[in-house]
Amino acid sequence: MATNGDTESVERIIPVPAEQIFALLADPRRHKDFDGSGTVRNAKNVPDHLELGSKFGMSMHLGVPYSMTSTVIEFEPNRRIAWQTWAPGIASRLAGGRIWRYELEPVEGATLVRETWDISQERVKAVVRPARGKTIAGMTKTLERIETVLASN
Q1: 64-115 pLDDT, tens per residue?
Q2: Cβ(116)–Cβ(136) under 8 Å?
Q3: If you ran DSSP here, which 8-state letter would residue 37 be given?
Q4: Which of 78, 93, 100, 138 is least buried, going by the fewest C-beta atoms within 10 A?
Q5: In sequence order, what E strands does 50-95 have?
Q6: DSSP character at residue 26
Q7: Are 102 and 80 a contacting pair, CB within 8 Å?
Q8: pTM of the predicted structure, to 2 decimals
Q9: Cα dihedral value 52, 45, 93, 36, nearest 10
């Protein structure tokens, strides 16, 4: 696990090729299948395939239902994908800006997967910083679930 104030990262070696992991990450319809936080519900307004600049919506639930809109801001096939999330409409002035990044590095017979939570561009950091511990736990579970989902395919 790595940290630098505005970011937290967790890593896991998953015994699956990077291409399969990337395909799962790049399909927002499948995010609920591996979400370790328990907040992701359903993708909405999803393009046929993600690429740099793609936008997609997500129905979420954390005590109450809400929605987020994400834009893919980093995209290197089979190596890196990141999206930045915002509350929809006028609420984006107060909520959003965090980045979810996945980096994939092939290792012998497996892939090192690094998930990073980056709040360097978050609108109100003081609101999300207290969730740091819960976020790390959720990311750890996410990487476990990615392995489980892909092992069952």
Answers
A1: 877 788 899 999 999 999 999 988 777 666 778 999 999 999 999 999 999 9
A2: no
A3: S
A4: 93
A5: 55-62, 64-76, 80-86
A6: T
A7: yes
A8: 0.91
A9: -80
